[in-house]
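Section 5.1 Outputs to date
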Amino acid sequence: MINNEWLSHQTIQSRGDYKEVRAEMVAPEIGFSLWRQMTRLRTVEQALHEEYHPADEMRCPIHFCIGQESIPAALSLLVQASDYLFSHHRSHGYFFAKGSPLKELFAEIYGKETGANGGKAGSQDISHHETRFYSGAILSGAVAIAAGVATGLKIRKSKEISIAGFGEGATDEGAFWETLNYAGKEQLPLLLVCENNRYATYSDQLKRQFNDNISERVKPFGIRSIKVFGNDSPLVYRTIEEGIKSIREGAGPLLVEAYTYRWNSHVGPEDDGKNEYRTSEEMNFWKRNCPIRLLENALKNANQWNQSDIDKAKKIIDQEIAECFRFAKESAFPAGVCWKELNEEDKTPLADQWLAEEQACTFDQNQSDAKLGPY
């Protein structure tokens, strides 16, 4: 395993272009799948980015993940259908990673009734119940909710795991550390994936926190951790593969801190460079060290690059995206929306029963009650 102890946003750029990607770390079919999935996600995001204006048909703000494709690509090959995946507001990569239907992503962004949430959630809060994917705009909310689900999985003694994807900005919230305290104490089946892209909106992490190594700070809470260069997709894949295996075997929660970078603005296709919070030198460094380009070079060096397969994959991706746009644009807008039903639920018989019958004194110190049975 490559020694990444030197990793931090302070040192990455100072060491020059990254040259340690090794295609041999994964089987050839995995290497090609990582390239295909990263290219597929990049192409989706670029197509949406380019289409947003001047048509102005998309009905919500979008936080694009261009440049951060490595983690979602690895997860897409490793997460099981029965696992739960929770995401922050930069949601597309995780929606993609869980195998949720891209047609419904596009339609949701266009505000159409065929969208994953009927056109009512948009990009920031998109969820897909059938594939067990849920995102949300509440900072650090994904982490806390994922821990709640992991608690249920532990009670059931399930082999399923709960996964939370978030940025380093989530660690500014007290809820993040409260969740880690509980997750570590209970040794929950929880994978925490921090895509550390350095900036929370326009704010440099080192102007908000003493250092940027979140992976070191979680250890006293009983959370195992590892940090990786997040644009090294074979290394990311192997790290998450081993981490998920250990969690399923009962080793408890794990945090993977992946140092990466978003190419685009914090939100939307508009350029936020007028704020001058990043230098062109920094942005060019990360674009040179693009995860897709790094893997392409590694595959070529390992004689694992088949141009015919590459061309075929790109053609299929382009066709898929064209069909997603057609589906979204031809779908109808939702009709007869009842906002009360969207925000309130009158029919909660089980909850009402518990609230009426249960007394605080019946619960033990682990906040459980045997009479309630399994979740």
